[in-house]
Amino acid sequence: MKAWLVEKHGGPEVLSYKEIPTPIPGPSQVRVSVRAVGINHMDIWVRNGVTGHTFPLPLIPGCDITGVIDQFGPGSEEKAKQTGLTMGASVIINPILSCGTCQVCLNSNETCCPQIGLIGETKNGGCAEFIVIPISNIIPCPKNISFEEGAAIPITFITAWNMLCNKTKLKPEELVLIQAGASGVSVAAIQIAKLLGGTVITTVGDEEKMEKAKNLGADFIINYKKKSFREEVKKISLSLGKKGVDVALDHIGGETFQETLKCLDWGGRVAFCGATANSKIEIDLKPLFFKNISLFGTTMGSKDSLNQIIDLIKQKKLKAVIDSVFKMSKYKNAIFKLESRNFFGKIIVRV
After folding, report:
1. Are both 168 and 146 inside the same structural domain?
2. CB contact set of 163 (below 8 Å; sequence gap of 6+)
């Protein structure tokens, strides 16, 4: 089969597209013929390498995957039939790998499993013609969700859902600040926050993205390149009779995270799921404990959450927002697009 491989860390030149053996599914596994893959920052981190973290190279990148069941491993077909899955069925792959038997897994908190893994990070991902995965990671893809839309769902939506529903527990009429409103996670978060009844402030970097964020449901949109988002959030909060936002979501880190903390009202909650700018910052703890501020580190979410999200998208209460679609052979171009930050929503590669 053809597959993209990261064989060593570095720039775009380390990515290779080559023929490798087609994997054979083992017990309790299935092989999926890949149709579409969503691009994430994980693809960049796998390629570049992360200090203090070891990736099992050579590695096929790609976390968010859709396709059709191509082959069952020994004993897995009977298990599949219990959930209505048959040969040729369209599926969305849950990218989180866990033991499934420990207490946190049984409590639908798989991201705290001691054996946590991620397809495309700790195991071969979907940027290939085929992928072999545990049958427990297979979710049926509804007929009214395309392969491209399905590949735009898992990582971003379960992360946003976890931050808003499980960690900060956003309530109706609360004010929420969502940083980087054009990113995949934030596009999902804007929709989920509105579904929960929140009032949304988001930040973007140009006028076109402002219009798209408005169409998505954001109540207030700030062009952070033209105005101080902290000052604008203060004005908006005061106009609504508040001293700041009730909830804030961030995945940028660095100075943005520091300023985001200053936007919170008393008793405010902030959830963060990444640090694309800088992970090392200085924080003054005094205003945090004095104002009873809560901080929640967040990594992805559960399969139960993913099933709920897929059902809401099926009902058209949420939607997968796709910026652009590339052929699998143009995977490098998709990564360049992600690195350029010139996008709104998800970037997809199609087999």
Report:
1. no
2. 189, 249, 271, 273, 296, 298
Contact 129, 34 (CB under 8 A): yes
For residue 344 the two structure tokens come to: 């709104």
What confidence score (pLDDT) does residue 310 get?
A: 98
Give this prediction's pTM.
Answer: 0.94
Assess if residue 49 is contained within a domain. yes
How far apart are alpha carbons 128 and 284 in whole angstroms? 46
User: Which tens digits make up the pLDDT trace of 118-169?
Assistant: 999 999 999 999 999 999 999 999 999 999 999 999 999 999 999 999 999 9
Q: Specify the pLDDT at position 278.
A: 81
In a domain, 304, yes or no: no
Residue type for 331, please? Y
Count structural domains, the chain. 2
Domain residues for 260?
157-297
> Which stretches in the chain have pLDDT values below 70?
none
Question: For 142, which DSSP code?
Answer: P
In terms of residues, how long is the chain? 351
The pLDDT assigned to 276 comes to 82
Q: Is 39 exposed, middle or buried (0-12, 13-18, 19+ CB in 10 A)?
A: buried
Instruction: Give yes or no: residues 256 and 118 share one domain.
Output: no
Question: Does one domain contain both 240 and 205?
Answer: yes
Q: Is 143 exposed, middle or buried (0-12, 13-18, 19+ CB in 10 A)?
A: exposed
Query: What are 251-265's pLDDT values in tens digits?
Result: 999 899 999 999 999
Decide: 319 and 309 in contact? Cβ < 8 Å: no
Cα 317 to Cα 15, 69, 297, 311, distances in angstroms: 38, 27, 27, 9
Residue 315 forms part of a structural domain: no
